Automatic annotation (TrEMBL), chain B:
It is found in: Cell membrane. Coiled coil: none annotated. GO terms for biological process: transmembrane transport. CDD domains: TM_PBP2. Keywords: Cell membrane, Membrane, Transmembrane, Transmembrane helix, Transport. Signal peptide: none annotated. It is a multi-pass membrane protein. This is ABC transporter permease. InterPro entries: ABC_transporter_permease (IPR051393), MetI-like (IPR000515), MetI-like_sf (IPR035906). It comes from Micromonospora endophytica. The keyword Repeat does not apply.
From TrEMBL, chains C, D:
It comes from Micromonospora endophytica. SMART domains: AAA (SM00382). One of its GO terms (molecular function) is ATP binding. This is ABC transporter ATP-binding protein. Transmembrane segments: none annotated. It comes from the Bacteria. The keyword ATP-binding applies. Gene3D superfamilies: 2.40.50.100, Nucleic acid-binding proteins, P-loop containing nucleotide triphosphate hydrolases. The keyword ATP-binding applies. One of its GO terms (cellular component) is ATP-binding cassette (ABC) transporter complex, substrate-binding subunit-containing.
Automatic annotation (TrEMBL), chain E:
Residues 69-260 form the ABC transmembrane type-1 domain. This is ABC transporter permease. Gene3D superfamilies: MetI-like. Coiled coil: none annotated. The lineage of its organism: Bacteria, Bacillati, Actinomycetota, Actinomycetes, Micromonosporales. Keywords: Cell membrane, Membrane, Transmembrane, Transmembrane helix, Transport. The keyword Ribonucleoprotein does not apply. Belongs to the binding-protein-dependent transport system permease family. It comes from Micromonospora endophytica. It is a multi-pass membrane protein.
Amino acid sequence: GSGASGPDPVKLLVFGAPEELGAYRTLIEAYQDARPGERVQLIEASDRKDLLARLATSVAGGAPPDVFLMNYRFYGQFAAKGVVEPLDQRIAGSTLDPADYHPVAMDAFKWEGAQLCLPQNVSSLAVYYNRTLFTRYGVPEPKAGWTWNDLVGTATAMTRDARGLVIKGTEAEGAARLPAVHGLGVEPSIIRLAPLVWSNGGEIVDDPVKPTRLALDSPAAREALKNLIDLRQAYGVVPSDAEVEAEDDESRFLNGRLAMLMTSRRATTNFRTITGFEWDVAPMPVYRQPVGVLHSDAYCMTTGSKNKDAAWRFMEYAMSADGQRIIAATGRTVPSHIEVSRSPAFLDPDQPPRNSQVFLDAIPTVRALPTVSTWPEIEDLSYGILENAIHRGDRLDDVIRELDVKSRPMFARGEHG
Amino acid sequence: MLAPYLVGLVGLMLLPALVTLALAFTEYDLLRPPTWVGLDNLTALVDDPIFRVALLNSLVFAVVAVPLRVLVALGLALLLHRRAPGVGTARTATLLPTAVPEIAYGLLWLWLFNPLYGPINQLLRLGGEHGLTVLGRTPPPWLTDPTSARAGIILMSLFTMGETFVVLLAARRALPRDVYEMAALEDATGWDVFRRITLPLMAPVLALLAVRDAIASLHFTFVPAFVVTDGGPPPYATTYLSLFVYQTGFEYLRYGYAAAATLVMMLLTVAALLVQWRLIRRYRRFYQV
Amino acid sequence: MSGLTLAGVSAAYRDATVLHEVDLAARPGELLVVLGPSGAGKSTVLRVVAGLEPATTGRVHIAGRDVTDLRPGLRNVSMVFQSYALFPHLSVAENIAFGLEVRDVPRRTARERARAAAETVGCAGLLGRRPGQLSGGERQRVALARALVREPDVFLLDEPLSNLDLTLRVEMRAELRALHDRLGATMVHVTHDQTEALVLADRIAVLRDGRVEQVGTPEQIWRTPASTFVARFVGSPAMNLLPADAAVCRTGDAPPLPEQPLEVGFRPEAVTLDAAEGTPATVDRVEVIGEDAYAYLTLAAGHRVVARVPAARRPARDESVRVGVRWADAHLFHADSGRRYVP
Amino acid sequence: MSGLTLAGVSAAYRDATVLHEVDLAARPGELLVVLGPSGAGKSTVLRVVAGLEPATTGRVHIAGRDVTDLRPGLRNVSMVFQSYALFPHLSVAENIAFGLEVRDVPRRTARERARAAAETVGCAGLLGRRPGQLSGGERQRVALARALVREPDVFLLDEPLSNLDLTLRVEMRAELRALHDRLGATMVHVTHDQTEALVLADRIAVLRDGRVEQVGTPEQIWRTPASTFVARFVGSPAMNLLPADAAVCRTGDAPPLPEQPLEVGFRPEAVTLDAAEGTPATVDRVEVIGEDAYAYLTLAAGHRVVARVPAARRPARDESVRVGVRWADAHLFHADSGRRYVP
Amino acid sequence: MPERAARLWRTLGAAFVLLVFVPPLLLLVAGSLTEPGLPPSPTPQLVPDPLSTTGYQRAVELGGLLRASLNSVLVAVLAVPLSVLVAALAGFALARLAPRTTTVVVAASLVALMVPATALLVPRFAIFRFLGLTDTLVPLIAPALLGTSPLYVLVYYLAFRAVPADLYDACLVADLSPLRTWWRVALPLVRPVTAGITALTFVLTWSNFLDPLIYVYDRDLFTLPLALRSLSLLDPTNFPVFLAGAVLATVPALVVFALAQRRFLRPDD
Ligand SMILES: Nc1ncnc2c1ncn2[C@@H]1O[C@H](COP(=O)(O)OP(=O)(O)OP(=O)(O)O)[C@@H](O)[C@H]1O
Ligand SMILES: Nc1ncnc2c1ncn2[C@@H]1O[C@H](COP(=O)(O)OP(=O)(O)OP(=O)(O)O)[C@@H](O)[C@H]1O
Ligand SMILES: [Mg+2]
Ligand SMILES: [Mg+2]
């Protein structure tokens, strides 16, 4: 840092695709314009794994970034290990008012009672759909309050071959006709499964505060899981593994060959490049009661930061209405700032999806996944097992048992907040 | 003259490696100071199903890919060691994949392996109907099927045997020509010549390359597994030791545990090395003049 | 019993022609030595016969068969390579038996015949060793044994003695000749050592720049060299060569010289230093080699001449002597072509 | 002017001692030839002098200085390596000037002296070429020029002619001797070729298995070999060696033999075949080499003897002859030690 | 003629090799020239329709490829010669030193060869931080200190050992310092080895991915592999953009390889 006039810049570690990183650069520029003299350096990782490797190495090496952006599902391991600076005192002495933010997001980043990070967004799952396709095939669009059966019915009706005829994707295995359009895209992951289980009255883990095992063996959870698997195994409305490998769901949707896609707000940025058809979002289907799953990233300050005051000032800005608006402009986030989330910055009717309100409506029903320090391992493990279940059709009992047996040691090693 | 290298070797290789290996006996998450746990990590590894899978994958890779790589390189070296029209170009072509940056190479294959749109399967489907090959079978799903994914990674590694090829080419060209003429005079068949002359004469070089490849095989699985398959298809079809170490160390922050895996990996390499060394020694006897 | 004929054979490496329409024949049972300086194309002759290089023109016959287009393995020749070409990874026994084993002779028979061949050349004690553990002389014997283990139509031996030191060379060349006499086989032996050629050969073919300069018995080559090249190449120090009209004292019966540009050649042995009315000369230098001494002289007219004298009666350096040439032992050559002058 | 002394020098590779307390001296301006069979340790002697191998015992003096512990660069010697050791990537001129340039002689001067040295050995026309483009003889000259470009205390030449063919060798050895005479430098020349040693040397040191067998002028080596080894190593075909009491006819002045186990040696030149009352013998084989012929005989008592006869008067194979030995030219050796018998 | 037949077979073999090795790279180029954003074509297209260089433009804009190339070039320009120099010096020293020292260093190098890169990241990071070198390009150049890979030092060692000992002895007699012997005699003699090692070092340095990932923060210091990595996260319809990046990253390596290849495989028949 020789020759630099001011203090060292605040180092902000984030990851994302090139477009997302662009948004952070805009945020930083705005901040530096607004506060002359402040300097922030963006450290770009390309994906979560990159970010983890960088963060861990730099902490171990004693030169951590000052601020990093982290999903609440993964911040547990850092929180548990005292790497993240508690912010309560700073919040108390600043203009930032916790009440301005959606509490569900704020709560997700409390560790042993202390506020460790400040959530930048409060997203949840929704069903994106290709309205043009629905119109073409005369299938009713999904609407609030629809059930799982509605979803399956709609997806089945939307799975079509090249001539536009309804087709069952399972028959297509290795046969002459492949679906040209699939009814639904959904990832076989815990985070997709969770809201379905919850909605059906089940639980993902035995104890949301101090989980010791996955609790998918309850009848409610079993049913939700079975229904998820049946999407592929019984109805063939979701693309096969080879098809996913060939073209992932997001680009399948982009290319107009996926009727519905269950994903978070994150996809919006990408979908706004769509010109060939009209699309919108619908809320998640419901089993018994509507429940959403929280998707939230937060700015965290490292305890090892040498530049905490400046880092805090940047965090304040990023969390402020101004800062949130800038990130919201990318379309990829649901701002955690209540006011901003209700402003045109988020709900702009000129920008698709028209029905962004779906995300706001979901917030009251949103639940967070447990924060365990070993959660990343558990997610990776369960992803593999679930993927096989969906695409290979493993026996449901085996799947549940395998998930349980293999994840137990991970829970045992985990630390909780 | 040795000084810069020694500084690098000790400062950037041996010392860091030693630190990491020492951490194998601690519990260390990179975030808090390490705590001594003795052999706990090593005993835990023994029971770790993922580690066992990774170990098995690595061994299978080494056992299949290393000889294949050497054989392919040998075949190409024997094919291309003498002049003929096109041979020079073919030699350069053989080196092409080695010249592509690893990450680009990995992603190139990701595209080549694409089960529906990838050029490989499109090629396999040529002449067939309804997405089948000429033989009426479905083309391999590559990265979604464990066996074909492993085969795919081996295939990828086969294409980057440029270094081995160069060394073997040089070795073959260094073999005395008169010995081959002698064999021609005796009317030895091509197979006889290969079995009785070429193979034994190149055995030391082949063994050396096998040693090097065996050492390196633990490393050159990393990028393909990291970039192309991400250790999958599920559960851990292409999780090799190198990827296992990276994941446990940097994604799950169990650095001490990963270090223990590294230790095991290096011990295995040493063992393999010793075995091969004995083989080489047996051959070396023949060549002392 | 079977001979060898090369008729108008040319050969080339890349674009450089190294053999020019060579005609050469070895009679059945004959030991033909091909002699020539380094690079003359001697090895190339053998390689063409063996089929290792193609002949660009001409035909090769072995034992009456035209083998020009046959691959080496079918020509039924045995070759000792200039470099021995032993297989470094095979034992001596395996080396010798190689040719039999690839011909699918049963292993046991092959080993027995290998042992017999090894005994013939006196290397039966080495059968278990590898070439790397042999001295140069021993390797040569192994290479020879490998050639002898079969019964080919022709043996081709490429400078099989060149890497040995003098003592060993003298020994081996006697053995080789004895071997030939015992086997009665057709042999082509290549060398650049004139002594070896003179000692071994039934007939010698002198090769120069890919052309046959002369073919004849050792006696013919020595006594009636066909050209100045042959004359100077055979014999050491080389034959003296002067313009025929140079002023030298001719002793003995000396007919008048014909009226055309000629050169006269005479070996150091034909020069006498005590001729009564010889040409005056000064001694530049004297080399003593055991019982013989060679005096390097400059004649009054400036020509340089070497004379062989008994070491005991050698002149001193710078001494003045009188030189005579035994004209009966002198040779005449055309000054322009260098070919022998035949009156 | 400066000599060279080795006093009690031993040398070893790994654990094998190859020089055993060698004492050797070259007087200033002398051309000393070290002669011995392959593997005798000749090259090792030069390497110890140059400082390329350490002496395990003894001292080396060059020009009066004790250089035993000096590094090679400081001993002021020039060496021609057995392999020439030309730098393949440098032109001939650069090769020759190499030793000067590293001593920071200005480039221009270095080039001039290189040219001068090249002219001395007759390779000035090759200055621009690389070693790969030279024939063996030319390379040898370049190596020599590289040694000559400096003015060292001692020149060390390791078999500089061994790779040349006979004609070229004869030529070069004359040039080398002339060069030595012109420079008046101290030279140590290593060879296994006895002819070369006899022709070139002021004095010859015969080496055998790392020990000096005899040192003397060529005349001494030839006339009074100190041991059967020297006697048989020098001369070709080798000296005949028989038990002194073998039944051979002695011609000339033949004093009675002393009463102890002795061997008698006599060169083929000392054998006459026409002795009136000679020992009966049969001719096994005759080698004709130009004017000379060598008859290989078996004496009645079974001993084998070689005789040199004029080619014109050679006996036929299997002919019976009567052999006499000129006793004046015979040598006596102790039968047990092989050392010369001095009455 | 048998020789002519053999040549024909070899040519056929060479053609086969070309057929296997070249198409993937041609497809890479073809793919990079496809219009981004279009659904993937169901058949391989050697000449994409429509032909478009948009991929290249987007790759340069999005990935900051220009800046990254500059950094990569900077690293390569500094690291490759340094690395080759270090390896050559060390290899020479090994070839000339006492056998015992050599054995120790060779053994240590072999051990180093076995160390997986992942085991080095963290300790190295601590070292670089201690030296205040993180977030500079120095950690990317630093591996040059060990010749990039100990393997290359060993290769040099073998090459220098194969140089006739007489040449070194001639240098000793001429009183050349070891350094000058290395520069004037040894190095020129192993030029093909240097060419080969330079090429391989270049490729390794050029495609080094893990080191910049860990040690470099500043986007302005990103090297090509990092830039490529971020491009690789683009969605599949933008694959041409990534392929364009890959082509751009491959071309320099190919050029270096082709140049070097001519040197180290030339002395032919
Ligand atoms: N493989 C080759 N390629 C090109 N030229 C060659 C080759 N082999 C030999 N020559 C050239 O052909 C000529 C004859 O070579 P050949 O080997 O027949 O000579 P030689 O008489 O056997 O010589 P020597 O006594 O040195 O063995 C020489 O000028 C040589 O340079
Ligand atoms: N580098 C070495 N390591 C071990 N032994 C050696 C080495 N160099 C030579 N020798 C052995 O030392 C002995 C003497 O070798 P030296 O090279 O001095 O022989 P030489 O008389 O020069 O023989 P030549 O005429 O073959 O050159 C030989 O027995 C040889 O095998
Ligand atoms: Mg030859
Ligand atoms: Mg020697």
